[in-house]
Amino acid sequence: MRHFSDPSLPQGLLPWQKLVGAYVLGIWSLKYPWVGLSALVLLLAFVPFKKQVRLNFLIVLAFMVGLALVWIRLPAVPDFVPEQIKSSERVVVQGQVENVAFLPGQRQRIILGDLALGRGDRTEALAGKLVWTWQDAPVSLFPGQLVQAHLNVRPIQGLANFGVWNSEFFWRIQDVHWRSYTRGGHFWRELDGDPGRSSRSRQILKEQVSSGYDLSGLSDQRREQVQGLALALFFGDRSLVDPGLMDTIRLASLGHSLALSGLHLGIMAGMGFVLAWLAGLIHPRIYLFFPYTKLGVLLAAPFCLTYIWMGQAPPTLIRSGIMFACWGVLLFMNKRRVLLDGLFMAAGIILVLDPWSIFDLRLQLSLAAVAGIALFLPILENCLQRVRVLWECRTSRYFLGLAGVTLAANLALLPIQAWTFNYLSPHLYLNLAWLPVLGLVILPAGFAGLFISFIPGLGWLGDILFFISGHSLNMFISILEFMVHKDFLHPIVTHRPAWQHTLVYWTLLTMMIYARQISLKNRAHLLGMVFLAGLMAFPMVKAIQDPGLRLRILDVGQGQGVILETPDRKRIIIDGGGSWNPEYDLGRQVVVPSLTWRRWPQGVDLMILSHAHVDHYGGLVYPLKYLGADQYLHNGIWPGQVDTARIRTALDRQDVARDILARGDVLQLTPDLALEVLHPEDQPDYPRLNDTSLVLRLIWDGHGLALIPGDLEVQGITDLLATDQDLSSKVLIVPHHGSRTSADQKLYERVDPDLAVVSRGFMNRFNLPHQEVMDIITSRNIQFFDTAVHGEVVITWKRPDTEPEISWARSRTGPQGIPYWF
């Protein structure tokens, strides 16, 4: 039995590795200063400061260097928006293609640099870069190409909600400040550019893969699915992958296998080691000149370089290539701590070349997974070796090792997965079946078939290899479809931890490994433990404080989503926003992450839909399906057939009770807190669906706090005002996102709000809120908030008779120091 002193088990970090860690934390602190500083304190706490004062100084210096480097290099935000962009008109944009990514749903994401507005001699330079999403494009663009297109250009602005990821910083560090979306054969033309021999060769290989995986005997849809997966695995081109199939693969915890990364490069490297093993069988004396591991590294290099080229050298593969190169160098130097030393060496090189890459989720996942394997796998192997019957069998040892790698990686990835994806898949076991098939059959057979098919006279062999690889992919899709049909594939929605808990989790895991090197007699270690306890306690103390009554108006773009949190911690959702883009689920991206940030997942007490428009119900399906609710309440009108089926399926899955609300109903939330239903009457019949919106009034101990009128328009407002109901409220959520049809002076007189909030999309095509609405709000001196400007708005009452506390997610300089545009 091995002990913790065994050199094969993890050893303490070397001084240079601590400097790399401090440098990384300095970069991280640009966006997350408290996280970076707290992690630096922990790093210093577990360095014996009496004996290593100089090392402590160097650690702090490395931290400051990292922070100063990214601060100086932070791309500036353009200080103005051209008038033609402000006016929401289409503009002619010229630019050079810098990068092209092929995304599911036949989409290209194109980064254009060297931007100019206009054509010919009448052009105006545009600062920064533009990200252009082109769906169903008739051609594929390539880096270096100079193009001109007629586009709707918008400044980059993500949805700003508390504790939810925002895309603005991600694009800013890449100097991308503009975005556009087109579909189909939109006007564009190539001004200049030669794809070059490399791009032409890659296109020939793509066509060969498509034809090779065009398997007979399969339906057209299945052939497209197989071809799409093959192109994704070999070239990183996921444009032919159906978005529904992509979601299924993610739910099966296998999404990482379609992202070109270290996993795929590892499989390519494995092919080199297989060749080294075959070389040893044929000529054993070769190991006298090149030991097996060194020969494997040499033979793996061509496979890895070819695969990086085939994938168009994305950052993920380049970073993985640097990691493998570092490990290869260490192997040639006969170092023992190859995995951990290589990880720090590669991280240092990558982050010196591109400091911003630390904010790339793909690199974060890669570094965390490898660190988990390096630290935890030796311990797991030590435990597994005790089961000698299984360990002595080569086959069972292989699968035990694969299970150990999966478990070790996921231990380290757990907080990142929980915070970023907001769910965990219970189907990690599928990796034990899928990864061997992918690494031993699909990629090797497809890779060999691709190149053999170009050898004259051996096309038949290439067809056989494609057949084996393609039908393995077909079987994989069939198994996933079966699991979806049986409703086996569904996520476990998780708690999204506070950063303090994530830091404590990783620190405690690491301390468990290095337990024998930590002593409470050491003052630094003792202070570190006290600091850890403080980090752990702070979010807990904050969570148990009296929350009061909170009204949260989420930033869901052009839509409306409201969450009401009562003093006894009940949660009521009133609408959930919704996107006209079926591939963007606001329920998964905003609503559920907002509900689970720093809170454990729990069912919703009430879910209320004001009316059957997608920008109000689209974000309700996901929380209904995976969180559930005690009751689902609406006005009795269902949306279209397809969306009604989705909602009913989610309701049935969670056995949610449903009921219809009408004027006169009262929802008693607590003994002194209620929601009154003021409109419409039972079985509403209006020519416009907006006028059927439920109008809700929040009352606490007799005080009218908020009026939530949905998308009420002229006729609905007229009927509401014709009643003698009390409409007075401190807060008014502006009807219909500030549309002109809701600009009724009498409504504002009856409500008499102190504060108004409009929920609308940034630079929306309807030009909301309308000036007539703004004139009413201004003339009545009503405090005004706008989700497109302020992001999520949170209004908190400690008691019903006190003034509310107001906070919003987007400060005047944006969520990450980025000024808003209007």
Give a quick account of the main beta sheet: strands, pairing sense, barrel closure. Answer: 8 strands, mixed
Please provide the count of β strands: 25
Q: Which residues sit in consecutive blocks of at least 5 with pLDDT less than 50?
A: 1-9, 812-822
Terminal CA distance reads 67 Å
Structural class: alpha/beta
Mean pLDDT: 87
- Count of helix runs: 28
The quaternary organization reads as single chain
Report on this model:
- With 822 residues, the chain is of the alpha/beta class.
- The protein is 46% helix and 17% strand.
- It contains 28 helices and 25 strands.
- Strands 1, 2, 3, 4, 5, 6, 7 and 8 form an 8-stranded mixed beta sheet that branches. The chain has an 8-stranded mixed beta sheet with strand order 16-15-14-13-12-11-24-25. The chain has a 7-stranded mixed beta sheet with strand order 17-18-19-20-21-22-23.
- Helix 6 (196-212) runs antiparallel to helix 7.
- The longest helix is centred in the middle third of the chain and has 28 residues, at 394-421.
- It is globular, with a radius of gyration of 29 Å.
- It starts with 14 loop residues before the first helix and ends in a 14-residue tail after the last strand.
Any chance you could write out the topology, listing elements then pairs?
Blueprint: H1 15-28, H2 33-45, H3 53-73, H4 83-86, E1 91-103, E2 107-119, E3 122-125, E4 129-135, E5 146-151, E6 154-155, H5 168-172, E7 176-183, E8 188-192, H6 196-212, H7 220-235, H8 243-251, H9 262-282, H10 286-289, H11 292-310, H12 315-332, H13 338-353, H14 361-384, H15 388-391, H16 394-421, E9 423-424, H17 430-452, H18 459-485, E10 492-493, H19 499-513, H20 523-544, E11 549-553, E12 561-565, E13 571-576, H21 586-596, E14 604-608, H22 614-617, H23 621-626, E15 629-634, H24 641-653, E16 657-660, E17 666-670, E18 673-679, E19 695-700, E20 703-708, H25 714-721, E21 731-733, H26 745-751, E22 755-758, H27 771-779, E23 783-786, H28 787-790, E24 793-797, E25 805-808
Parallel strand pairs: 4-7, 13-14, 14-15, 15-16, 20-21, 21-22, 22-23
Antiparallel strand pairs: 1-2, 1-5, 2-3, 2-4, 5-8, 6-7, 9-10, 11-12, 11-24, 12-13, 17-18, 18-19, 19-20, 24-25
Helix pairs in contact: 1-2, 1-3, 1-13, 2-19, 2-20, 6-7, 7-18, 9-11, 9-17, 11-12, 12-13, 13-14, 14-16, 17-18, 19-20
